[in-house]
C-alpha cells in the first residue's frame, strides 16, 4: 500500500509500485484529466506536477511519487481559475481538447519560473507537448495572456 | 420520448441542474424546462471542429433564445430524430444548416402557438425575443418555459420561414466552445475517460505486420499475471461478410487480453508467447451498388523500397482514362516545350492524440457501446449482423473524440470491443496503445502523380496531362481545376492493390492532389514568365468565360475570389515582404475554397514557416473565431505533414510506431502568425475541416523553392529529394 | 637523571624514525600514483580513452551546443531540451521530467539515472568536436573539468553517470570497450603523466 498526496488529498493506493503514475491516477484514483497519448514520454499529454516539476506520468513510477506532492489538472486551482485556465477560455484555445491538460500543466511550470516568458521561452518549455490539431499559436498567445493575468493577480490589480 | 444518456446525467449534475427536472421536448433537438432552461441537442459527434457549439448555435438563432441560457448536450444515436449524425467530409454545417434552422424555427413557432392558445389570441400577434414571448397588444408576456409543456403537444409545422441571414444575433458572431471549461479542468469527456460499473480493460494483440496472421499463442504466463481475467481470440467477420465502405479492418482475427487495470493488461501482454505466419492471399467481400464483389487482398509483406519500384513500373504502363478534352496527344506532339514532373508522397498515419478505444457491454439481448466514433449509423448495421442483435437493441453513445481526421469513421474497434465483451461476459473498455494504433493501418495511401504540360512557341499553355497512381488507390480528381481551363486536357489513373489498409485522411486524395498540382502550376508559371497568382487567375478567367467541357467541379469566380483575397491581404508583391520566401497555392475541395500564402525563412539552418496568410470561402461563417481556429489548425497540420509526416514499411512491419519515430510538428516549428480572412457572402455554409488543409502542402513546396532554389517533389519535404523529378 | 636525558633524546629520535617510516610509505604511494612518467604509454592509453569519451553513450551528454545529443547517430535530442544554467534543463523540459532514477524498460524509452544532467552552462565540458589533444588537455585542467584534481579524476571513472554509459537501456550500443578496460586505460593515462597526444 503506497500513500500518495494528490491535489492536497491523501490516497492509499493498492498497486504495484512499478505502476506508472498515469495509470494510478486514471484507473485507481479516478482522476482522468491526465491523458494517455503515447506512453513513451514523447507527447506530454500525461504531464503532472511532482513537487512542482512537470514530470511525464506515463514513465514516472508510483514509488517515485511517494512522499511528494502530486498536482494534476484537476487540482491546479481551487475553482479552475488559474490564470492559464482563464486565458485558455478567453482565447478559446482548444479544438479536440485531448492534449490541453498536459499543455496547461507544462505551461504552469514555465509561468512559475518565468513571469514574463518570451516566445523563445515558450518554445523551449512547450516543445515536448504535441497538439495534433495544431492549436500551438493559440497556446502561445494564451501563455502570454496568462502571464499578464498572473502579473495583475500578484500586484493585486 | 425523453432520453438521458449516462454521460448527459453527469454533465447536468455537474452544472448544478437538477437531473430530475421536467424536460419538455420540442422537436428532437430542443428541450425546455418550466424554469426556461433551454437544452439543445447536438446531433453530430465532436472531434475538435466545434460542431458541438456551431450546430446548436444555428438552432438557438432560429429558436430565438439568449445563447447564455443554452445548455448543450451531445445527442444519442438516433438517425430518425437527429439526422445522419455523420461527422466527416466537412459536411456537418452543410448537411444540417437547413434542417437545424427549420428545427429551431418550428420550435419557436410551436411555442408561439402554445402562447397564443394559452392567451386566446391570434398567433400572428405573438412576437418573441431571446426566450420570451410577447403579446404586445395586451401587454401579456411569458417565458418559453411557461409554454414548453403545451408546445410539446403541438404538431411540428413544416416549412417555417427562417430568419434573414443578415439579422443573426448568435450565428456569424463568435461564441465560446461550450465544453471549453470542462476541457481545461480535466473533466471526463473522452472515450478513454468513460467508466462503467464493473468495467474490465482489454487490449488487442494484432499481427506485427500487414500480411501476417495469428498462428498460435501461449497465454499461460500472461494468465498468471496479477489482475488478468482472460486471453482469447476474436474473429470480426465470418467468411463472405459483406463489408460496407467503413467496415475496413486490417486484421480479422485478433488476440485480446482482458484484465482489471490498464497497466496490468499492458504488462500481461508482454508475457504472451505468440506465433505469427503469413496470411497468404485473402478475400474480402464488399457491398456495392451493383451487388457484392470480391476483392483479393494480396499476401506480400511489403517494403517501401519495393513499393516505390512498383509504382515506377506502373507509371509507365497504360492507365484508366478519367477525362479527355480536345486532342492532348496532338498538342504534345506539336509542343515547343514539354515540362514533365513527378511527385510522390508516403503513407500517413492519422495518429489522433487519443488512441483508438471503445467501451462495450454486450449481453444476450442487448448491447451498450460508448466511445469516440464519427458515424454511428455506419457501424450499427455491422454490429447488428456480427452480434446477431436487432438494431433497436444496440445503443451507441458518442463521447467527445480526441481527434478524428477520418480515422474514427471506421468502426472496427467497436466490433472488437463488442466481441470481447460478449466473450468475457462483462462490460469491457478496449484500449489501443499508441503502437497498436499507429501500426494498425487505415492510412492515407501512398501516392504518385506525373504532370505534363505542353507550351507553344509563345509560351502559351496548350495541353495538360495528369497521370496519377497510388497504393492502393490514386488521388486524381479529373474534373477539378485546371480542367475546364485548358483546351487539351488528359487525366488518367492507376492503382496497385495492397494489404495495407487505407481510409479517409483529412481531405482524402485532395491532400496529395493539391500538393502536386499546385507545385506544378508554380513551375509552369515560372516557365511561362508569369506571376503564380496571375497565372491561376488567367486560367480561372478562361474557365469562367469559355469553359472547356461540361463537368467542371468548381466555381471559377469563388476560386478566383480566394486567390484575389489572399493576394491582397498578404501584400503579395510588396517590397516589405522581401525577407520572406513566399509560396502560394489554392484549392477547392469538400465544397469550400482556400488559398494560402506561406512565408518561409530559415531557423537554425532549417526551413521555417514563419507566417501564413489564408483566404477562405466557405459561405456563411457560423462561428468566426472557431472557424479561424480551424483554419490555423489545418495550416499547422499541413506544414507538419508536408515537412515531416510519413510512414515506411519493411516486410510488412511499420517502422514508425510512436512519436519518437513518427514526427509530428511541435510548438517551436509552428508559425508565429496565421492570419485568416473569410470571403464575406451569404451563401449557405459549407465546411472547413478539410478545405484549408490540401493547399498548404503546395504553398510550402513553392515557398521552399523560393527559399532554397530547389523544387521539392518528394514528401515529406525534410526527406532526401530525388536527383531528377521524373519517374 | 641520565635515564631522563636518554628519554628526552630518545623520544625525538623515535619520532623521527617513525616519521621517516611514514615518509617512506608515502613515497611508496606516490610511486603508485605517478608510477613513472611515460609519454608514449600515456598517449597510447589516452587514445583508448578518447574512443570511449567520443562514443555516443558519453558524448551525447557532452555536446558542443546547449541541446543534448541522442542515439547512436548523435542527432540533436528530439524536442530540443535546453541545457539551462545548472545543466538540468529548464521549465517543463528538465532532464528528470522524463529521465527517471532508473532506465525505463523498453525500446526507445528514456534511459535513467538519479543524477541525469548535462554539465552546467559555466563549465560545459564539451567532448563533441574535440581533437584528442584538446580533450586530453581539457580533462586535466581543473578550470575546465569541474574542478577535479588528480584524485577526483581517478575517482570519476566510477562515477554513477559514467557507469550509466554501460547500462544504457534497450537498443543502445555500449561504449567500444568494457568499463573495466576503460578504467584501466583511464588510470594508465593519468598515472603515466596524463600526456596529451600531439594532435
Mean pLDDT of chain A: 97
Low-confidence runs of chain A: none
What is the CATH class name of the largest domain in chain A?
Alpha Beta
Number of strands of chain C: 4
Report the CATH superfamily of the largest domain in chain A: Beta-grasp domain
Instruction: Choose one word for the global shape of chain A.
Output: globular
| Distance linking N and C termini of chain C | 71 Å
Structural features, described:
The complex is a heterotrimer of chains A (157), B (727) and C (199). With 157 residues, chain A is an alpha+beta fold. Chain A contains six helices and five strands, in the order ββαββαβαααα. In chain A, strands 2-1-5-3-4 form a five-stranded mixed beta sheet, sandwiched between helices. In chain A, a hairpin with a 2-residue loop joins β3 and β4. Chain A is globular and about 45 Å long. Chain A starts with a strand and ends with a helix. In chain B, the strands form eight sheets. Chain B has a seven-stranded mixed beta sheet, with helices on both faces. In chain B, strands 16-24-23-22-17 form a five-stranded mixed beta sheet, sandwiched between helices. A four-stranded mixed beta sheet of chain B has the order 1-2-3-4. With 727 residues, chain B is an alpha+beta fold. The relative contact order of chain B is 0.11. The termini of chain B are far apart. Chain B is globular, with a radius of gyration of 27 Å. Chain C has a domain of 110 residues. Chain C is built from eight helices and four strands. In chain C, a hairpin with a 4-residue loop joins β1 and β2. Chain C is elongated and about 85 Å long. Chain C is mostly helical and 199 residues long.
Précis, in short:
The complex is a heterotrimer of chains A (157), B (727) and C (199). By secondary structure, chain B is of the alpha+beta class.
Amino acid at each position: 500500500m503506497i500513500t500518495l498526496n494528490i491535489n492536497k488529498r491523501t490516497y492509499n493506493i493498492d498497486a504495484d509500485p512499478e505502476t506508472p503514475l498515469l495509470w494510478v491516477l486514471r484507473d485507481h484514483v479516478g482522476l482522468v484529466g491526465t491523458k494517455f497519448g503515447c506512453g513513451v514520454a514523447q507527447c506530454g499529454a500525461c504531464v503532472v506536477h511532482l513537487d512542482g516539476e512537470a514530470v511525464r506520468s506515463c514513465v514516472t513510477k508510483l514509488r517515485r511519487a511517494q512522499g511528494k506532492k502530486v498536482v494534476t489538472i484537476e487540482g491546479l486551482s481551487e475553482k479552475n481559475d488559474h490564470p492559464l485556465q482563464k486565458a485558455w477560455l478567453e482565447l478559446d484555445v482548444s479544438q479536440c481538447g485531448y492534449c490541453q491538460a498536459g499543455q496547461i500543466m507544462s505551461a504552469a511550470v514555465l509561468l512559475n519560473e518565468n513571469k514574463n516568458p518570451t516566445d523563445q521561452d515558450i518554445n523551449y518549455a512547450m516543445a515536448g507537448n504535441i497538439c495534433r490539431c495544431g492549436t500551438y499559436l493559440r497556446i502561445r498567445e494564451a501563455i502570454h495572456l496568462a502571464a499578464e493575468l498572473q502579473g495583475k493577480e500578484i500586484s493585486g490589480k | 420520448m425523453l432520453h438521458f444518456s449516462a454521460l448527459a446525467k453527469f454533465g447536468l449534475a455537474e452544472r448544478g441542474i437538477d437531473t430530475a427536472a421536467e424536460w419538455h421536448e420540442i422537436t428532437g433537438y430542443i428541450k425546455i424546462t418550466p424554469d426556461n432552461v433551454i437544452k439543445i441537442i447536438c446531433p453530430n459527434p465532436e472531434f475538435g471542429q466545434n460542431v458541438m457549439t456551431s450546430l446548436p448555435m444555428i438552432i438557438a438563432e432560429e429558436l430565438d433564445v439568449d445563447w447564455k441560457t443554452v445548455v448543450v448536450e451531445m445527442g444519442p444515436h438516433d438517425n430518425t430524430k437527429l439526422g445522419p449524425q455523420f461527422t466527416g467530409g466537412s459536411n456537418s454545417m452543410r448537411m444540417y444548416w437547413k434542417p437545424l434552422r427549420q428545427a429551431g424555427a418550428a420550435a419557436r413557432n410551436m411555442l408561439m402557438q402554445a402562447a397564443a392558445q394559452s392567451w386566446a389570441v391570434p398567433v400572428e400577434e405573438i412576437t418573441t425575443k431571446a426566450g420570451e414571448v410577447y403579446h404586445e397588444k395586451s401587454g401579456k408576456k411569458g417565458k418559453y418555459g411557461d409554454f414548453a409543456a403545451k408546445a410539446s403537444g403541438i404538431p411540428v409545422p413544416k416549412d417555417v420561414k427562417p430568419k434573414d441571414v443578415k439579422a443573426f444575433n448568435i450565428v456569424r458572431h463568435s461564441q465560446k466552445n461550450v465544453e471549453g471549461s470542462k476541457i481545461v479542468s480535466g473533466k471526463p469527456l473522452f472515450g478513454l475517460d468513460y467508466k462503467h460499473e464493473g468495467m474490465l480493460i482489454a487490449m488487442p494483440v494484432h499481427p506485427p505486420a500487414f500480411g501476417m496472421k495469428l498462428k498460435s499463442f501461449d497465454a499461460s504466463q500472461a494468465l498468471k499475471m496479477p489482475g488478468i481475467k482472460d486471453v482469447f481470440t476474436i474473429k470480426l467477420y465470418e467468411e463472405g461478410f459483406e463489408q460496407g465502405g467503413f467496415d475496413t479492418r486490417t486484421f480479422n482475427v485478433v488476440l485480446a487480453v482482458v484484465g482489471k487495470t490498464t497497466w496490468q493488461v499492458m504488462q500481461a501482454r508482454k508475457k504472451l508467447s505468440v506465433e505469427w505466419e503469413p496470411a497468404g492471399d485473402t478475400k474480402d467481400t464488399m457491398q456495392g451498388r451493383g451487388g457484392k464483389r470480391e476483392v483479393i487482398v494480396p499476401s506480400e509483406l511489403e517494403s517501401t523500397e519495393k513499393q516505390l519500384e512498383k509504382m515506377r513500373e506502373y507509371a509507365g504502363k497504360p492507365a484508366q482514362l478519367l477525362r479527355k478534352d480536345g486532342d492532348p496527344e496532338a498538342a504534345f506532339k506539336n509542343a515547343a516545350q514539354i515540362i514533365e514532373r513527378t511527385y510522390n508522397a508516403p503513407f500517413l498515419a492519422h495518429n489522433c492524440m487519443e488512441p483508438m478505444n471503445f467501451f462495450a457491454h454486450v449481453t444476450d439481448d442487448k448491447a451498450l457501446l460508448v466511445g469516440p466514433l464519427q458515424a454511428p449509423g455506419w457501424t450499427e448495421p455491422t454490429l447488428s449482423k456480427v452480434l446477431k442483435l436487432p438494431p433497436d437493441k444496440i445503443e451507441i453513445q458518442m463521447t467527445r473524440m480526441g481527434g478524428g481526421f477520418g480515422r474514427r469513421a471506421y468502426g472496427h474497434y467497436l466490433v472488437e470491443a463488442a466481441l470481447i465483451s460478449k466473450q468475457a461476459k462483462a462490460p469491457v473498455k478496449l484500449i489501443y496503445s499508441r503502437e497498436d494504433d499507429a501500426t494498425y493501418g487505415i492510412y492515407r495511401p501512398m501516392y504518385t502523380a506525373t504532370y505534363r504540360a505542353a507550351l507553344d512557341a509563345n509560351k502559351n499553355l496548350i495541353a495538360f496531362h495528369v497521370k496519377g497512381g497510388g497504393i492502393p488507390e490514386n488521388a486524381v480528381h479529373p474534373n477539378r481545376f485546371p480542367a475546364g481551363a485548358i483546351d487539351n486536357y488528359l487525366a488518367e489513373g492507376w492503382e496497385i492493390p495492397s494489404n495495407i489498409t487505407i481510409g479517409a485522411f483529412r481531405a482524402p486524395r485532395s491532400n496529395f492532389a493539391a500538393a502536386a498540382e499546385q507545385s506544378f502550376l508554380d513551375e509552369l508559371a515560372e516557365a511561362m514568365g508569369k506571376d503564380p497568382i496571375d497565372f491561376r487567375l488567367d486560367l480561372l478567367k478562361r474557365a469562367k468565360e469559355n469553359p472547356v467541357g461540361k463537368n467542371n467541379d468548381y466555381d471559377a469566380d469563388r476560386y478566383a475570389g480566394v486567390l484575389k483575397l489572399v493576394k491582397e491581404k498578404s501584400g503579395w508583391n510588396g517590397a516589405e515582404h522581401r525577407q520572406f520566401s513566399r509560396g502560394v497555392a489554392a484549392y477547392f475541395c469538400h465544397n469550400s475554397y482556400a488559398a494560402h500564402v506561406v512565408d518561409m525563412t530559415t531557423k537554425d539552418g532549417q526551413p521555417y514557416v514563419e507566417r501564413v496568410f489564408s483566404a477562405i470561402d466557405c459561405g456563411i461563417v457560423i462561428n468566426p473565431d472557431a472557424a479561424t481556429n480551424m483554419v490555423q489548425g489545418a495550416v499547422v497540420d499541413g506544414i507538419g505533414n508536408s515537412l515531416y509526416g510519413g510512414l515506411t514499411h519493411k516486410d510488412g512491419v511499420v517502422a514508425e510506431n510512436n512519436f519518437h519515430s513518427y514526427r509530428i510538428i511541435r510548438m517551436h516549428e509552428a508559425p508565429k502568425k496565421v492570419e485568416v480572412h473569410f470571403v464575406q457572402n451569404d451563401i449557405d455554409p459549407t465546411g472547413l475541416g478539410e478545405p484549408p488543409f490540401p493547399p498548404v502542402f503546395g504553398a510550402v513546396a513553392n515557398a521552399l523553392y523560393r527559399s532554397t532554389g530547389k523544387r521539392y517533389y518528394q514528401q515529406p519535404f525534410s526527406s532526401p529529394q530525388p536527383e531528377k523529378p521524373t519517374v | 637523571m641520565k635515564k631522563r636525558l636518554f628519554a628526552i633524546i630518545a623520544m625525538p629520535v623515535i619520532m623521527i624514525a617513525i616519521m621517516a617510516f611514514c615518509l617512506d610509505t608515502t613515497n611508496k604511494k606516490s610511486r603508485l600514483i605517478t608510477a613513472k612518467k611515460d609519454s608514449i604509454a600515456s598517449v597510447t592509453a589516452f587514445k583508448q580513452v578518447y574512443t570511449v569519451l567520443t562514443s555516443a553513450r558519453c558524448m551525447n551528454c557532452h555536446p558542443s551546443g546547449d541541446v543534448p545529443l541522442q542515439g547512436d547517430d548523435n542527432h540533436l535530442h528530439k524536442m530540443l531540451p535546453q541545457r539551462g544554467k545548472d545543466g538540468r534543463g529548464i521549465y517543463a523540459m528538465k532532464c528528470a521530467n522524463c529521465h527517471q532514477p532508473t532506465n525505463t524498460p523498453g525500446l526507445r524509452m528514456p534511459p535513467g539515472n538519479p543524477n541525469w544532467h548535462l554539465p552546467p552552462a559555466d563549465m560545459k565540458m564539451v567532448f563533441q568536436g574535440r581533437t584528442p589533444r584538446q580533450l586530453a588537455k581539457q580533462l586535466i585542467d581543473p578550470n575546465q573539468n569541474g574542478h577535479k584534481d588528480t584524485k577526483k579524476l581517478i575517482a570519476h571513472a566510477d562515477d554513477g553517470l559514467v557507469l550509466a554509459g554501460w547500462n544504457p537501456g534497450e537498443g543502445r550500443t555500449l561504449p567500444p570497450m568494457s568499463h573495466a578496460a576503460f578504467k584501466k586505460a583511464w588510470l594508465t593515462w593519468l598515472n603515466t603523466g596524463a600526456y596529451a597526444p600531439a594532435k
